[in-house]
């Protein structure tokens, strides 16, 4: 059946979804569509102006008009429902029969499915019937309604939990759900916007393009501009359905908190947080504002696309946004037919998610494949901004620090991070937690950290969480969901994909360039150990950081330099002076060694009286170590020089800082240390005595 209706032909929608030219019994008569999508074109299209990221398209070049349209949309949504467990308790506490009926409905459906699996297992047919049972589970979730559909959507992105047959079936819950009658949808549009549909759209698809858990989407064309848009209309009676389910689930949460000791988190708090997010999804004006904020923060990247919102045609139950052509991110074959790579798009999603979680703290909490599209131009389009959340500022830096401590295997610091993450109250002693962390990570980190997947870390930390008085914050549960969804999408394309490896460039860039005191201290902790500078760590950070497109050589290490010359940098200055002396000595003596090696053998014998050790009293091992350090420093300098943004002018801020009195004092101490080291070596060379201490006091 074509989605387009002939020009000027009146039609009606039957409740069964069929299109009738003559109304049958029970048919609601609608307006005649004025034109087909492919034929309708306004004679004059108003000029649309983009006021920058997040502003949306503004008609007539006047930003004020857009703000006024948003204000009108907010007024239309003034009575949108909000989640209140107290009101739900009052409402359903007085309806025991309805509550009992719904409880039995859920128990019967879930128990019947569980019994079927048990029978399959006993008959040895569990594997043979996977596809059949997966389809049955999808139908169970669909019959149970929107709340359980959302549970199924979450499972559809977890290849670590569900077999492939279940993943494929449950993925249909993302946008292939049963629809509600189109007559109700069009009536809702007119009621919410206060206008006849034919005065808003020159055309609209006669049936939904997609149906989701909370609403269904139509493709239409705006009459005033010719812009092709997506119109999302909320399901009727949705508030009643999810309200009763959350009332029951919350009661179950109280029972879990009271009787299930293995779960130490506040389950009721997690349920309340999730319910609040779902209720926010019911307010489409709020979703539009979320989309605008998300666009402003993250759509500045050329490979991220966020659709614009049309406020004049948006209300609490109707959302009109820019139409986006694209393919769902889990449809690998369709993506590759467009000449695109799934892993490139997943990497874009990971980098954007890291910015969301750790830079601005405002993140998309429901990134299932139906909400992530690959556009023909290779962009990653984010859709459906109903469920959003925020990471507290302190937690953002604590998460980055936690990764650094994991790399360093500093389990005492890892345990202390849980205070900043709000996992533990300040009065809890973390010392008993350290052995549990050590036992897990010492085994897990036998390979490099980049080879770990997110599931391994979550599972390992989960085992620790269960043993100690952790209280996982609600925002963290949404972070886990967001990251596991992205990892699940990546595993579709590559079973060996590692989220941590893909995340390294972002972490390295933040550590090298962010002036935040917490991250500055984490960088110093990573680079210095036992009073020595770890050049291999710096080289690795630069190699990884350069992979991030936002990495700037000019900003690299500037935070540490400022600390070094600041009033709180005395301890760091002592370490830097020792390392500067060691590196300078390495270059001076390395030059001597190179010069000696270029001298012909005969001249060496004459110049050094046949001394086989040459001009320096050093073992081969010491010489190799010295030359290796010099090569490493030169490689690091080469990395900086080869960066796209490199310009000798990047040294100017350093030279300016070196004019400060503290810097001149620092330079004097370095020169003094070098002089002492070289004088000591010269004296030993003259006396031909072996060196007893390769590190002089400064």
UniProtKB/TrEMBL annotation:
Residues 203-533 form the Protein kinase domain. Pfam families: ABC1. One of its GO terms (molecular function) is ATP binding. InterPro entries: ABC1_dom, ARM-type_fold, Kinase-like_dom_sf, Prot_kinase_dom, UbiB_kinase. It comes from the Eukaryota. Belongs to the protein kinase superfamily. ADCK protein kinase family. This is Protein kinase domain-containing protein. It comes from Carpinus fangiana.
């Amino acid at each position: 059946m074509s989605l387009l209706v002939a020009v000027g032909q009146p039609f009606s929608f039957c409740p069964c979804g069929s299109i009738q030219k003559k109304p049958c019994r029970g048919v609601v008569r609608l307006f005649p569509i004025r034109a087909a999508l492919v034929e309708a074109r306004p004679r004059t299209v108003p000029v649309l102006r983009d006021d920058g990221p997040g502003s949306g398209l503004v008609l007539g070049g006047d930003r004020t008009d857009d703000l006024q349209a948003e204000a009108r949309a907010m007024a239309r949504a003034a009575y949108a429902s909000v989640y209140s467990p107290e009101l739900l308790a009052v409402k359903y506490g007085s309806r025991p029969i309805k509550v009992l009926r719904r409880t039995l409905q859920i128990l019967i459906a879930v128990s019947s499915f569980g019994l079927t699996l048990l029978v399959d297992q006993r008959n040895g047919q569990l594997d043979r019937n996977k596809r059949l049972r997966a389809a049955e589970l999808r139908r169970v979730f669909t019959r149970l309604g929107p709340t359980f559909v959302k549970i199924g959507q979450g499972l559809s992105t977890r290849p670590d939990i569900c077999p492939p047959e279940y993943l494929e079936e449950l993925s249909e819950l993302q946008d292939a759900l049963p629809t509600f009658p189109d007559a109700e949808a069009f009536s809702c549009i007119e009621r919410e916007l206060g206008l006849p549909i034919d005065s808003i759209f020159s055309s609209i698809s006669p049936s939904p393009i997609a149906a989701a858990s909370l609403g269904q989407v139509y493709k239409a064309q705006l009459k005033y501009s010719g812009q092709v848009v997506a119109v999302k209309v909320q399901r009727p009676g949705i508030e009643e359905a999810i309200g009763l389910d959350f009332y029951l689930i919350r009661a179950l949460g109280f029972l879990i908190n009271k009787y299930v000791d293995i779960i130490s988190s506040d389950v009721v708090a997690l349920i309340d947080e999730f319910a609040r997010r779902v209720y926010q999804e019911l307010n489409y004006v709020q979703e539009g504002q979320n989309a605008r904020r998300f666009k402003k923060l993250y759509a500045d990247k050329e490979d991220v696309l966020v659709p614009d919102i049309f406020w004049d045609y948006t209300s609490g139950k109707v959302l009109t946004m820019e139409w986006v052509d694209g393919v769902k991110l889990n449809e690998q074959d369709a993506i590759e037919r467009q000449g695109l790579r799934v892993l490139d798009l997943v990497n874009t999603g990971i980098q954007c998610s890291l910015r969301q979680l750790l830079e601005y703290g405002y993140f998309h909490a429901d990134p299932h494949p139906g909400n992530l599209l690959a556009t023909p131009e290779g962009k990653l389009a984010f859709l459906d901004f109903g469920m959003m959340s925020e990471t507290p500022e302190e937690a953002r830096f604590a998460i980055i620090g936690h990764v650094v401590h994991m790399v360093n295997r500093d389990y005492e610091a890892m345990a202390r991070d849980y205070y900043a993450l709000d996992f533990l109250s300040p009065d809890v002693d973390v010392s008993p937690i350290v052995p549990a962390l050590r036992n897990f990570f010492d085994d897990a980190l036998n390979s490099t950290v980049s080879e770990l997947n997110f599931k391994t870390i979550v599972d390992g930390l989960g085992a620790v969480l269960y043993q100690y008085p952790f209280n996982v914050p609600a925002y963290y549960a949404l972070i886990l969901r967001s990251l596991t969804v992205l990892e699940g999408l990546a595993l579709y394309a590559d079973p060996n994909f590692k989220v941590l490896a893909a995340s390294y460039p972002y972490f390295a860039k933040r550590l090298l360039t962010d002036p935040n005191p917490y991250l500055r201290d984490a960088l110093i902790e990573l680079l210095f150990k036992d009073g020595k500078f770890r050049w291999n760590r710096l080289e690795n950070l630069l190699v990884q950081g350069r992979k991030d497109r936002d990495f700037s050589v000019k900003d690299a290490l500037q935070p540490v330099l400022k600390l070094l010359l600041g009033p709180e940098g005395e301890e760091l200055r002592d370490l830097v002076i020792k390392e500067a002396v060691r590196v300078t000595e390495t270059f001076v003596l390395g030059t001597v060694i190179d010069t000696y090696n270029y001298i012909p053998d005969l001249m060496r014998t004459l110049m050094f009286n046949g001394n086989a050790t040459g001009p320096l009293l050093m073992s081969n091992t010491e010489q190799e170590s010295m030359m290796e350090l010099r090569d490493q420093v030169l490689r690091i300098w080469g990395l900086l020089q080869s960066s796209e943004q490199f310009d000798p002018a990047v040294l100017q801020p350093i030279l300016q800082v070196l004019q400060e009195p503290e810097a001149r004092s620092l330079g004097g101490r370095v020169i003094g240390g070098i002089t002492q080291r070289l004088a000591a070596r010269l004296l030993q060379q003259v006396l031909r005595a072996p060196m007893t201490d390769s590190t002089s006091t400064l």
